[in-house]
Amino acid sequence: MRPFTYTCPKTVDDALRAYMQTSESKFIGGGTNLLDLMKMGVERPPQLIDINKLPLTAIEERNGGLRIGALVSNTAAANHPLIRTRYPVLSQAILGGASPQLRNMATMGGNLLQRTRCYYFYDPSYAECNKRVPGSGCAALHGYNRIHAILGQSEQCIAVHPSDMCVALAALDGEVQVKGPKGERSIRFADFHRLPGETPQVETNLTSGGINYLDRFAGYLLRTPFLLPEGAGSSFVCFRARFRGGDSGRGRGRKDSRSANRIGRGRNETLARHTGREGSCWPETG
Ligand SMILES: Cc1cc2nc3c(=O)[nH]c(=O)nc-3n(C[C@H](O)[C@H](O)[C@H](O)COP(=O)(O)OP(=O)(O)OC[C@H]3O[C@@H](n4cnc5c(N)ncnc54)[C@H](O)[C@@H]3O)c2cc1C
Ligand code: SF4
């Protein structure tokens, strides 16, 4: 067992102060991804900052659009009347992922920052993983990779961001609001995540390896992960291609990944025609 400290601040500023005091700290929302990664030894934060007492749980109308707090649960967002009627693709995308129990725990901010589901990333007994250990190689390139990328990959990493919800948010062209010790920023959702490129360990444009939104300081707290513009949502529909046939994820290799995405593209016409947004890959759990 690796020791870590735990703190549960009540204000955003206290949470940021706690973050500043211990480097490599982690904020914890629902914990559905972070705790798994800690158990596997992939994430080893010396301090957990529980953000569940922060006042970030509102869904509010703002300038004709919608503002969704970072701590709104995935279930509450998917079932909210304003989201269901004005942005049904977001509701459909959230409900297409995970399970009711997980969606009850998972927060909007955590969903946005969840890590890839690449098997090799989760298993430190594999030495090769450029995302986990920069410069070590990529075991998935020649291993099990049916849930990996067919677009946007690099020689260093072929992993995808696994969020169903984020695909819908990219289509809706929302904004993410963040606060760090040096200020607040709004970031266009489409600019938030990065392709793996040469530095797959840098996953968003928040950190000093990215666009430096927060003055070269990597600590930030998502406050309002999504600010959705007026009238953006009604013309999209969400489809999810699922594997069936007894293989729970590992094993059939890249060919299957390609054919699944072909199916996805065919069914996903409406979304792709408007925005070209595709993404998210999960091993079959249902
Ligand atoms: C069995 C299983 C099946 C799943 N299936 C799917 C699926 O089909 N589709 C899908 O899209 N997802 C799926 N998920 C993933 C799930 O959606 C994510 O685990 C969840 O959304 C993460 O939210 P959380 O609040 O629990 O995040 P946490 O685990 O608490 O945190 C995740 C990361 O976000 C950071 N973080 C959290 N909140 C903030 C904040 N406000 N500011 C800054 N940093 C923050 C944490 O530090 C951590 O790095 C599945 C998960 C499991 C375990
Ligand atoms: S695809 Fe990316 S996350 Fe997976 S093993 Fe390769 S470098 Fe690691």
Tell me briefly what this model is.
This protein has 286 residues and is α/β, with parallel strands linked by helices.
List the helices and strands and how they pair.
Layout (H helix, E strand, L loop, with lengths): L4 E3 L4 H10 L4 E3 L5 H7 L6 E4 L8 E4 L2 E4 L5 H6 L1 H6 L1 H8 L4 H6 L2 H6 L5 H4 L41 H9 L2 E6 L2 E6 H4 L28 E8 L25 H14 L1 H7 L11
Parallel strand pairs: 1-3, 2-3
Antiparallel strand pairs: 4-5, 5-8, 6-7, 6-8
The protein binds flavin-adenine dinucleotide and iron/sulfur cluster.
Q: Main sheet: which strands, in order across?
A: 4-5-8-6-7
- What's the total number of strands? 8
Annotated CATH architecture: 2-Layer Sandwich
- Rg computed from alpha carbons, rounded to a whole number of angstroms: 18 Å
Give the mean pLDDT: 79
How would you describe the overall organization of this protein?
By secondary structure, the chain is an alpha/beta fold. It has a single domain, classed as 2-Layer Sandwich (Uridine Diphospho-n-acetylenolpyruvylglucosamine Reductase, domain 3), CATH 3.30.465. The protein is 30% helix and 13% strand. The chain is built from twelve helices and eight strands. The chain has a five-stranded antiparallel sheet with strand order 4-5-8-6-7. Strands 1-3-2 form a three-stranded parallel sheet, covered by helices on one side. It starts with a strand and ends in an 11-residue tail after the last helix. About 16% of the residues have low confidence. Bound molecules: flavin-adenine dinucleotide and iron/sulfur cluster. Flavin-adenine dinucleotide binds next to strand 2, helix 6, helix 7, helix 9 and strand 8.
